[in-house]
Design goal:
Layout: H1 3-10, H2 12-21, E1 54-63, E2 69-74, E3 79-92, E4 95-96, E5 108-115, E6 124-131, H3 132-139, E7 141-149, E8 154-161, E9 166-167, E10 172-175, E11 181-184, E12 187-189, E13 199-205, E14 213-219, H4 221-242, E15 244-250, E16 256-260, H5 265-270, E17 276-280, E18 290-299, E19 302-308, E20 319-324, H6 331-342, E21 347-348, E22 351-352, H7 361-366, H8 383-389, H9 404-415
Helix pairs in contact: 4-6, 6-9
Bound molecules: heme C.
């Protein structure tokens, strides 16, 4: 239901007025005219209690990543004060699993908000935050380049239904500038030039007072596929390290039953009966008992997990995190996918930028003329790690930094001897 439709439903007086205005309440040849009964003035809408989750398109004003408190201004000009929860689903580039830090001030996004349970401040709890690219991807839409005005740093796109290849919205003109990062055919492009007809997925931001929105991340189809896969790998590494958020359902002696909302289906599929895991009271490692997983039940995107562990004095409903017990980093599972999605476009057979190819493990190790790629046991001498951590130039990959969790995986793998299993 549209917001407008919902407001009307809540406001019978308005409904009557609008029906009357459209002639809905006219009776043919009505009885003698009486002066209309005074209608009660509807209470200001903002004060009405919000009853159901609300989806709003808004511009982010602030997001404090330490407390999770945020503010946004809706398209209708209304302010929304909200708070993130550990379970808030954060979508970027068409996949869940983003970090709060990735959402930037001034960026347009879709918020799914729920009225806060305790009527306190802020008024809303964020159920989901998604960037425009995720919104487009989920709706099966994209933009198509129409024309570019290089003199004024602007371009015009039309909104397209991807499957039908049909234009579904009015043309949109946006500016490009310093905030714009253009990734075409998986590569950052520094001279903004896009051929008419190119399909684009785009995040935009609003500069205050500007006539047009400004393009931020702007991706073509293959780049989107790469960013999406990247997003999933980031989520997997983060969930392994910090645990997936959930609630305690029951904790009798020797058992803990939790309800998890892991925000990443691939991570959920990896949880196995018999595996060691830890229930924590925070995202910090080592803050809770460890035990074997006894059962995993999937309920839509949520999981019900029973763990053989003692979690004393935890009332049902208490927030916990469940993390697989630390294990040796595996090349095949943790490292290879990371390098494949982040590096191979530019460092492979036939195109080895900087003279470095990652096509085979041997090449990856041997590195380039400047030095070895991987020195087993010594991440501090391995160019592969040093360029990704930013300790040595050039900072890699050029378009998007690896997350701290991904860097620790890489470091741990090299320091443990960089085995290829
Ligand atoms: C979009 C293309 C691109 C991607 C993706 C990319 N690189 Fe690079 N990389 C380059 C270019 C270009 C250079 C050479 C830059 C220079 O010499 O200043 C380079 C240089 C390097 C070097 C230094 C090689 C030398 O001897 O100078 C290393 C190490 C490296 N990249 C590692 C990586 C890793 C690891 C990844 C993935 C996490 C990655 N790169 C992703 C383009 C890329």
């Amino acid at each position: 239901m549209s917001l407008a439709a919902r407001l009307f439903r809540w406001t019978p007086a308005c409904l009557i007025l609008s029906l009357a205005a459209f002639g809905g309440l006219h009776t043919p040849q009505a009885a003698p005219r009486r002066p209309p009964a005074p209608l009660a003035r509807p209470a200001p809408l903002a004060r009405r209690p919000a009853l159901e989750p609300r989806r709003v398109t808004a511009v982010l004003d602030a997001l404090d990543t330490a407390t999770g408190a945020g503010g946004a201004t809706g398209e209708d000009g209304r302010p929304y004060a909200f708070r993130l929860q550990p379970s808030t689903s954060l979508w970027r580039f068409g996949a869940p699993g983003a970090m709060p830090e990735e959402f930037l001030k001034g960026e347009r996004m879709q918020l799914k908000l729920q009225p806060a349970a305790d009527k306190g401040q802020p008024a809303w709890t964020a159920v989901e935050i998604a960037d425009e690219i995720s919104e487009l991807a989920r709706a099966g839409r994209c933009y198509r380049m129409v024309s570019q005005d290089r003199d004024n740093y602007r371009f015009t796109v039309e909104l397209l239904d991807v499957a039908a290849n049909q234009v579904v919205g009015a043309p949109l003109t946006v500016e490009y500038g310093r905030e714009t990062s253009l990734i075409l055919r998986e590569e950052p492009i520094y001279v903004f030039r896009i051929a008419p007809g190119t399909r684009l997925w785009m995040n935009t931001g609003s500069r205050s007072g500007a006539e047009f929105r400004t393009a931020r991340a702007t991706l073509d189809e293959v780049s989107l596929a790469r960013f999406r896969r990247q997003q999933t790998l980031r989520a997997l590494a983060r969930l392994d390290a910090r645990g997936a958020p959930g609630r305690v359902l029951a904790s009798p002696k020797g058992r803990v039953r939790v309800d998890l909302t892991p925000d990443c289906p691939e991570w959920a599929e990896r949880l196995e009966v018999g595996q060691e895991a830890q229930v924590r009271r925070s995202t910090q490692a080592g803050t809770g008992p460890t035990g074997r997983i006894r059962s995993v039940k999937r309920l839509g995107s949520a999981l019900e997990v029973v763990l053989e562990a003692d979690l004393p004095s935890t009332a049902p409903g208490g927030a916990v995190w469940l993390a697989p017990a630390p294990r040796a980093v595996s090349y095949r599972r943790d490292i290879q996918p990371l390098l494949e999605v982040n590096c191979l476009t530019c460092h492979r057979e036939g195109r080895a930028d900087g003279g470095y190819s990652l096509s085979t493990p041997e090449r990856m190790r041997s590195g380039s003329r400047r030095g070895p790629g991987v020195v087993p046991g010594r991440s501090d001498q391995s160019m592969l790690y040093l360029t990704m951590s930013g300790d040595r130039n050039p900072h890699m990959p050029p378009d998007r930094d690896a997350t701290p969790e991904q860097l620790s995986l890489l470091k741990a793998w090299i320091d443990a001897g960089a085995a290829l299993e």
